[in-house]
Design a protein that fits this description.
This protein is mostly beta strands. It has 2 helices and 14 strands. It has a 12-stranded antiparallel beta barrel.
């Protein structure tokens, strides 16, 4: 019931924005033009956006998730603990990018490829949306819990596929849907499926010329993961300074790759198990002009 209530709240929050949305960004110019900055960066909080790096652009990313805020002053409100990911993303073309990263969460290496095959254009009914597809793989490099038994490298592997469908309704408001699939090669119980299906929603609301409010939520279909885990919800602020983007957020997810933030979220907002975190994105042009 809690999840249905949250979904209803999200829908009600969207209605006023959709009613006021402006669908024409260049009313004085009938020539179709690509819509830019549906989101400030290639990530909402954890999830991909439809945005892609420009050709020959390198993005160095630092993702930090601290401990629970409820830890109080003794734990410096969570700042005494930290989970992080360091990553490098690269734009091969304006619509094709790749990325690699390493997380302290389960000492995981991950990589992905993302392709944007439609970009929203104003004054063009044939291109009303931006659509991208991201596929990735992650490798858990923790030591085997039982090294004396026969262990298989394939047990360390996990895969993800995510379709991002976004529309920038006005200069201030963007919405993205993210049907997602995570495949886990090894699970700890036959009660659950190796495949986890989820539906995500991302919202961006500009509040200042270079500042946006972001929301990211994933609904995990029932009976796919342990009852110890729950749905990830993140609220944040993006601050863009050109080549830098700073993202500050509150979240119940500590891992920042797909398997972690979709299938291994054990913290709950209703229990006050909230983490402060940030992402820093720094882009470099590494090719010829």
């Amino acid at each position: 019931m809690k999840h249905y209530t949250l979904t209803l709240i999200l829908v009600l929050a969207l209605v006023p924005n959709l009613a006021l949305a402006q669908f024409d960004f260049n009313a004085e110019d009938d020539e179709p033009k690509p819509v830019k900055n549906t989101f400030y960066t290639t990530r909402i909080v954890n999830s991909h956006t439809t945005e892609s790096l420009e050709k020959q652009t390198l993005d160095f990313r630092i993702n930090h998730r601290f401990g629970e805020i409820s830890g109080g002053a003794y734990e410096f409100f969570g700042l005494d603990q930290a989970m992080m990911r360091l990553g490098f993303d690269y734009g091969i073309t304006d619509n094709l990018m790749v990325g690699i990263g390493r997380s302290t969460f389960e000492k995981t290496l991950d990589g992905f490829v993302k392709y944007r095959f439609m970009t929203q254009h104003d004054n063009d009914k044939k291109r009303p949306l931006s659509i991208s597809l991201a596929s990735g793989m992650s490798v858990n490099t923790l030591k085997w819990t039982d090294p004396d038994r026969k262990n298989y490298f394939t047990s360390r592997l996990n895969y993800s596929h995510q379709l991002m469908v976004a529309r920038k309704f006005s200069e201030k408001f963007s919405l993205q849907l993210m049907p997602s699939l995570v495949h886990r090669n090894l699970i700890d119980s036959t009660k659950y499926s190796n495949d986890v299906i989820a539906m995500g929603i991302g919202i961006r609301q500009k509040i200042l010329p270079s500042v946006t409010l972001n929301l990211e939520y994933f609904y995990i279909a029932p009976n796919q993961i342990s009852d110890d885990f729950t749905h990830p919800l993140s609220l944040g602020i993006d601050i863009s300074t050109g080549w830098h983007t700073f993202q500050l957020h509150l979240t119940n997810a500590t891992g920042t790759f797909e398997k972690a933030y979709m299938t291994q979220v054990s913290n709950r907002w209703d229990k006050g198990q909230i983490h402060f975190g940030f992402n820093i994105s720094r882009e470099f042009h590494v090719g010829g002009y």
